[in-house]
Structures are given as structure tokens and as C-alpha cells.
Known about the structure:
- The protein has 14 helices and 23 strands.
- It is of the alpha+beta class.
- This is Circularly permuted ATP-grasp type 2 domain-containing protein.
Amino acid sequence: xxxxxxxxxxxGGVRPHxxxxxxxxxxxxxxxxxxxxxxxxxxxxxxxxTFAVYGDEAGTERLIPFDLIPRIIPAAEWKHLEAGxxxxxxxxxxxxxxxxxxxxxxxxxIVPQEQVFGNAQFRPEMMGIDLPxxxxxxxxxxxxxxxxxxxxxxxxxxLEDNLRVPSGVSYMLENRRMMMRxxxxxxxxxxxxxxxxxxxxxxxxxxxVAPPNVSEPTVVVLTPGMYNSAYFEHAFVAQQMGVELVExxxxxxxxxxxxMRTTQGPQRVDVIYRRIDDDFLDPEVxxxxxxxxxxxxxxxxxxxxxxxxxxxxxxxxxxxxxxPYVPRMIEFYLGETPLLHNVPTRMCREPDSLAYxxxxxxxxxxxxxxxxxxxxxxxxxxxxxxxxxxxxxxxxAHPEHYIAQPTLAxxxxxxxxxxxxxxxxxxxxxxxxxxxxxxxxxxxxxxxxLGEGSLVVNSSQGGxxxxxxxxxx
Length: 473
């Protein structure tokens, strides 16, 4: 299988946008790079840039491996990606408003009703609630992969939409800081679009969706607490925006308004950037046993006295069973042709697709529609016959729980591994912010599968990260 390499084409040369960097890299002594790698690890460990791995006997806190070779995207490519991402997220927000209001797309038969009403992430409690600017997903993390097309060019595809509580932006920002610290000369030589303004942009979008008639909205970040796997990011984002990091016990609802307990007394809260799943937000409405939410939050939300980012119920639009319909959403709501294509997807709930998937399992990637983090999936080419047979039985028992996709020849990028520099597969998660307008910082989080031949980039599965450079010219 041929792989599109971001830096080196098949003829062994160097792609033009990498030429200057490749020349610099060739001049670096191995000892220098090795020392820089050790310095990066020491700094990341000192700062506490870790994530938790539940059930990991080796220890719950891990560093996400950081690779020193950047992923570079030329300006023209990014312009196309940016336009496609804005188009997609705009349509997804329109879809969310529609399913919780008039449900026109369901009446038109474009998305089957059972795919929405039978979805575990659909929240009937959200029906008829009007949100500022009709924005449900203020923060979206769209996973992009690249594969070589018939013309030998790298084509971008959308692999997944993350609209509930997308994570990873802290690593995007810290990776850039690290590269600027270790290699300042590279930033003098290259015209690289900045990402450091992301927290300011995020705060602007959150303030833009505050309740009406609030001139100076109070924004907080709501975390499940320090034992959550992404707690570092919760604290980091709050600190970068200059807002309070709170837990459910720090909030209370009175007269359908949300207040934060402070040493100066109660302070009204207008926007909550929540990093807690729907089920645990309000024990009055969802899970009664939740100790990490805030009782009465839904009442205040329904009354329009507080806004949540992202909105309750956004998960219905990022479920893998809805993903195949996004191109049709773009056509339905915007009257436009999708600029970014989905990975071809078969829904195993359909008899023909089920039969095809079962027959071709060794060649396919099969995912649970509610799965995440690289779990609950089968990568056919990397699986044994026994694993494939066992997974086939799971699919037969509940075909509606699975989708099947071809095993894409994901693009590679040179990466430092134990044996030296070698190609490794990667993806990209740009972060799309919606408020009165839709904005994106150039680039995103590049995740890299560090194992040879591995296609799984998730940090919980041993993946690492790279800095992502978007060239300004």
C-alpha cells in the first residue's frame, strides 16, 4: 500500500513547502536533536502536561510523546481546509437547531428519524430551547486525515466530528511554545501563522453567546475535577482565558440563575464552558446520583439565564451513525457542495452494508457508533483471524452499533523514533469556534501513531503529537 508522505514524495525529493526545513534538518547533528528531545520531555514533565489513563497499572499519569519534526501545511492547502471546516461546522449547528425545533431534515427524509430519536445522545429536554445565534457547538474538533488519490496527490477527508467536549487544544498551544523555545531560528526563517491567540478567540466566542442584556458576561470552565483524564487541559484553558475553573460544588442555582461561590459572596455566572458530559450536568434532570454537576442547571438554561458551551444534546450530531449524513446536511441547509469529503462509510444496520462488511472484515476499519479514543474498533489489516472472527460475532449481534470504512492509507510524516527518523501515520484536529461568526486558528493538533505501521493516533493508545505549521505564504 502506498502512503502519501507530507515531506517526501515517492521520487525521493522534498516537497517545496518543506524544502527550507529539510535543508536545516540535514545540518543538525544527531546529538543536538537528542538533547532537544530530552529538554522537551523535562519541560513538559515539569509543567505537568500529562493525561490520565484509567486502569493503567503502570501509573495513571503519562506524558504525551512530543515529536520535534513539525507537520507543515502550505497556505493554499490551508485555505481550502479552512473553508471546508467552516462550511461543515455551520451545517452541523444548523442541523442541531433543526432537530430540536422544526425537524425539517427529518420530515424531508434526508436523515432517518430513528437515527435521531433512537440516538442515546438525543436530549428531548432540549426541544424548543432557543440558543444565542442558534449555536450549539461553540467548540468543534474535526478530525482530518489525508490519503493519496488516483492522481498521486494528498486529499483531505473528514474522519470524525467531535462536538461534545473536544479536547487537545492545550497540546496544540504547548507544542508551539515548545518549538519556539527549542528552535527560535526556525521561526525567524519561516512565515508561520500564529496560534497563541486561540484563548482570546475562544473567550470572545463564549462571551458572544451570553444571555441577552448581559454587558460584561462572567465565563467559567466547569471541570469534573482533578481525577479527570483531561484535567490539565481544563485548568490550562481557564488560566489562559483568565476565567475561573470551577467544579459542580462551586455552583448553585437560585431563582433560575446560576451563581458561583466566591470569597466575596455569590457571583452570577452567564456562560459555562463545560467539560462534563450531559448525563452528569444536572442531577435534577439527568443522572440523579451525579455529584459533579449542579442541581437546577437545566432550569436556568431553559429560562435563558445561562448558556452552556457546548450545548446539551450536541452529541447527536457527532455520533458515528449521523456522520454519513453530514454531506447531505451541507447541501440541505446551505445549498452548497461539500468542500471536504467524508471517508466512504457503510452503516452495518443496512443489510447490504452488513453483508459487505462481514465479507471484507480483513480489509476494513469497523467502529462502534458511540465509541471513542480508538477503543471498540477493529482495524482489519492489523488484526489476527481470531480477532476478526470474534469481532464478526459482535457485529452480527448488534449491527446497528457499527459502521465500516476502508482502511485508508493515511499520510505519513518523518518522525523521531528510537531507530532514528522514520515515517509515521498521522491525523489533524483543527479547532473550529462558533459564535456570531465562525473562526479557526491556523493548524490544529497533529497526532501521530508512533508504532511502526500503526494507524491509531490516540494518546491513550500510545500516540504522540507534533506542532502544526501553517505557512502564511
